[in-house]
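Input (Chemotaxis protein CheY):
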Amino acid sequence: MIEALVGASGHEVTGVRTGAEAIELALKEPYDVVLLDLMLPGTMDGFEVCGRLRSDPSTKALPIVIISALDDKESRERAERAGATAYYAKPFRPLELLEYIGSLEPANRPAG
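Output:
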């Protein structure tokens, strides 16, 4: 649903299933933003993905937006410690997410 929403608003979207795929692509391709769930299939959750992206110089400044069903204080704090830029709890307001993505002007995006 999120892929379709963001894609329909004119953004190019690349979807992946696992955290390992997300890291692999983010390190190879210049993305404007990463939309990341915390609960992922495989061995790596979204907290770990976020932390690994933050620890790599090429993705350190990349905006990482968490979109998760986890809406508790501990999850939000863990995401913040991992380096998340923003946090949207499901169900979220799609227009609010699109406005946020749109606010990431090219001049403010990390060089990649």
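The domain at 2-99 is CATH 3.40.50.2300 (Rossmann fold).
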